[in-house]
């Protein structure tokens, strides 16, 4: 959330940032009105509490009873006003960073740079869903029979390929000081709310267990971020970096008709996620650091890619800046998202009350996240490394873990 003092003093700036994210700026006026009301009530309640204490000391029972009666009416009103104010304040998004382009939607995102030339073949390349099926490593049809659409079985060399990607990520991130974590994949709704993903319809893309007040995570950042909620970290321990290894779950609400073939947009997938807690002055530097790691991982796989910088209208509620790394898919003749990295500045830290103490002062940490690998790079490898005979070469960097140089058909 934003600091209410900042909202009071910069209401027009907050309105513009909210509008730039394609949200209704009227929420800012609502927050300020609710803030004024709850502060008025707070003054009245505090004055009455002071009177009550005065009458208790002077043993003026009659006046004490009158004051108590007034408090019994006003305190519930104050509580309700505080709740309404907090709920409204949480609807205001994090403001886009100053270097983020103003834009309506993904069509206005910026291409920052392109690495590598698009892969070309002297034959018609197959799509990843065809290759996965032909090689016997991705089974969508049987998964649909068992679980429904947007699920898949990953089998044989497909599993080895994913484990090899994980090993590459672990080896790379461990050298950079990231601590491996296998987090819970079910978290409390309050924890998810603290991360800023429930507002403005965000819950629609989540699998929610109302009976247990739990939510399945869509990325391990959602369970790693709240790890330190309510804590004051030591500045000497920062940056604090984690790599979360988990299965992720998404309803893919709003994706009807998109990517219905194959396993590009699915309800369940595995991912290794980077997450950092840093000093406020180190936030931007850490964001570039994460982006650099993501680029190095794709470069190691020798997959052509583009770095895309999101415009304001394509940022989620908590993000101040976000980059996507889009890999080349020959069968479609276009780049598609493989990984991403975001900074939420101190937006999530304020909601979760995570601070760090250094040189006699306490500040909110900056929190950042970035994907090392999900299962999508498997699809990019299949497409970019396919051969005319239907086999797929294994990227050199993965061969030591795969134990082979080529993936061929395996009966199942």
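-> sequence recovered:
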């Amino acid at each position: 959330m934003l600091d209410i003092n900042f909202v009071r003093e910069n209401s027009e700036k907050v309105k513009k940032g909210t509008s730039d994210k394609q949200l209704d700026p009227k929420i800012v006026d609502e927050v300020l009105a609710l803030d004024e009301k709850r502060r008025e009530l707070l003054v009245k309640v505090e004055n009455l509490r002071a009177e009550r204490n005065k009458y208790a000391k002077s043993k003026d029972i009659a006046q004490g009873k009158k004051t108590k009666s007034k408090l019994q009416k006003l305190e519930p009103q104050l509580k309700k006003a505080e709740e309404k104010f907090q709920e409204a304040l949480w609807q205001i998004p994090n403001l886009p960073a100053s270097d983020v382009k103003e834009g309506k939607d993904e069509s206005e995102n910026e291409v920052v740079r392109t690495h590598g030339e698009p892969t070309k073949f002297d034959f018609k390349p197959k799509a990843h869903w065809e290759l996965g099926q032909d090689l016997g490593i991705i089974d969508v049809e049987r998964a649909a029979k068992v679980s429904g659409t947007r699920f898949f079985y990953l089998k044989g060399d497909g599993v080895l390929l994913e484990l090899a990607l994980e090993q590459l990520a672990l080896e790379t991130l461990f050298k950079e000081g990231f601590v491996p974590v296998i987090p819970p994949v079910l978290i409390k709704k309050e924890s998810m709310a603290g991360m800023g993903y429930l507002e403005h319809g965000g819950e629609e893309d989540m699998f929610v267990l109302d009976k247990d007040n739990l939510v399945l995570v869509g990325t391990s950042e959602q369970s790693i971020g709240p790890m330190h909620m309510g804590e004051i970290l030591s500045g000497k321990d920062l940056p604090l970096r984690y790599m979360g290894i988990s299965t992720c779950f998404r309803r893919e609400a709003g994706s009807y008709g998109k990517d219905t073939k194959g396993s590009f947009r699915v309800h369940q997938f595995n991912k290794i996620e980077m997450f950092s807690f840093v000093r406020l002055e180190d936030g931007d530097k850490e964001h570039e650091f994460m982006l650099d790691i993501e680029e190095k991982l794709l470069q190691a796989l020798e997959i052509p890619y583009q770095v895309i910088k999101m415009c304001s209208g394509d940022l989620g509620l908590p993000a101040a800046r976000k980059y996507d790394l889009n890999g080349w898919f020959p069968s479609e003749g276009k780049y598609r998202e493989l990984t991403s990295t975001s900074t939420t500045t101190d937006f999530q830290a304020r909601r979760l009350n995570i601070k760090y103490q250094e040189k006699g002062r306490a500040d909110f940490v900056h929190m950042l996240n970035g994907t090392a690998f999900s299962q999508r790079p498997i699809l990019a490898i299949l497409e970019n490394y396919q051969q005319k005979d239907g086999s797929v070469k294994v990227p050199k960097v993965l061969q030591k873990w795969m134990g082979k140089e080529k993936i061929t058909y395996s009966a199942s």
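The domain at 106-183+228-245+270-407 is CATH 3.30.930.10 (BirA Bifunctional Protein; domain 2).
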